[in-house]
Amino acid sequence: MACLFALISSASISAQTVIWKDDFDGDKGWQTFEYKGLYKSEYTKDGALLLKGYNKGTKCTSKCKTTLNPIKNFSISVEATSKSGLKEDSYFGIAFNCLDANNYSLFSVEKGFAYYEQYRDGQRVRFDYDLIKNTKVKVFNLEIKKTGTTVAFLINDEETLFIEDVEVKSSKVALYVEGETQVAFDNIEIKQ
Length: 192
Prior knowledge:
This protein is mainly beta. The protein is 7% helix and 56% strand. The chain has one domain (17-191): Sandwich (Jelly Rolls), CATH 2.60.120.560. It is built from 1 helix and 15 strands. The strands form 2 sheets. Strands 1, 2, 3, 4, 6, 11, 12, 13 and 15 form a 9-stranded antiparallel beta sheet that branches. A 6-stranded antiparallel beta sheet has the order 5-14-7-8-9-10, with no helix packed on it. Strand 7 and strand 8 form a beta hairpin.
């Protein structure tokens, strides 16, 4: 009987509901901009947020404040369609725990690799990576799952990275590209 109660209790703790979502059919506060031909962020007619990077090493980030409680467990998922295909030195993904421009965590995809990076005061303080299997697809379902102080990163429902001892302090989330790439983001969803 105690075993059954524990099972029911753990299931209710892990059940999450959608607390915030955006299908990009309207403006929910994402930043859109263009900067000197280096990068551009814009809404598309078919309901997506398109981020374009035109030069190697240039980051294009669009941030939004969400209703996420960073102390609780959560998941963030988004559909990312790579318009230019995966290339070396061209990245895209989700930034979370965005305190400011110098303090954030990144989950990103590049040709053949998935990365986790954490920045404090503008310095990269943590870096993890792993190979990804299917790099020929153009649509990627990216997901971050935080449970306690661990974060799992999934690409198309396959866990690619599992990071321990991650402290999340901010509800701000960002989508980003870096390098010569164009990615349309759609259907972002946060569960908690």
